[in-house]
Write a structure and sequence with these properties.
The protein is an alpha/beta fold. The chain has a domain of 92 residues: Vaccinia Virus protein VP39 (Rossmann fold, 3-Layer(aba) Sandwich). The chain is 32% helix and 24% strand. The protein has 7 helices and 7 strands; from the N terminus they run αααβαβββαβααββ. A 7-stranded mixed β-sheet has the order 3-2-1-4-5-7-6, sandwiched between helices. Helix 5 crosses helix 7.
Length: 200
């Protein structure tokens, strides 16, 4: 039963949509020709979409398990992302080497959140940025979301509030933290956070 429901969830149109990325690209600056590190590959549709929207960027995507990637369904931009199987709490990338770290619907189920933030901060170049898009812990959907995730995916799932995210980001050293929500239509349960690693 759980396996069937997880397969159905993975096949849902929302799981293949680039809407979360469209909102982020509209409201936050992305390095159009820099290096972007995506944490949490999932089914791969998100990073494939990002490679089409940012054809000049070099994209690296990292996940502990690539077993969920739907290779036959993915359509890449001119440059195919680099797929790396590794632990996000110990990122195998040199310090100060990427322009942006982004996580879309990933952070809620990661272990050791402080460690993940510290690793994201480490691999970023001075002046680099982090983008997180996830379920807003203050939205009414947060608790049902956690319940379903605990049952189907991971007991670690936690829908973070904006205050919790701000504490984690500032604790890792990030500054200029900004948050946005989509108020008018669709995905009102999501929150986007953007922050920067100090340039000096």
């Amino acid at each position: 039963m759980k396996a069937f429901l997880r397969k159905a969830l993975d096949s849902a149109p929302m799981m293949k949509s680039g809407s979360a990325y469209d909102f982020a690209l509209e409201h936050f600056p992305f390095p159009e020709s820099g290096t972007i590190l995506d944490l949490g590959t999932g089914n791969g549709h998100g990073v494939a979409y990002l490679s089409r929207r940012l054809p000049e960027a070099s994209i690296v995507t990292l996940d502990l398990n690539m077993g969920c990637v739907r290779w036959s369904e993915l359509e890449f931009g001119p440059s195919r992302p680099f797929f790396v199987q590794a632990d996000v709490t110990n990122i195998p990338i040199a310090s100060g080497s990427v322009d942006m770290v982004e996580m879309v619907m990933t952070f809620h189920c990661l272990p050791k959140p402080e460690r993940v933030m510290a690793e994201a901060f480490r691999v970023l170049k001075p002046g680099g940025s982090i983008l997180i898009a996830d379920v807003d812990g203050r939205h009414w959907m947060a608790k049902p979301f956690e319940w379903v995730e605990h049952w189907l995916v991971s007991p670690l799932t936690h829908a973070y509030t904006e205050d919790e995210f701000r504490a984690l980001l500032s604790g890792a050293g990030f500054r200029n933290i900004r948050a946005r929500r989509r108020e008018k239509s669709g995905m009102k349960f999501m929150m986007w956070l953007f922050a920067e690693k100090p340039a000096d």
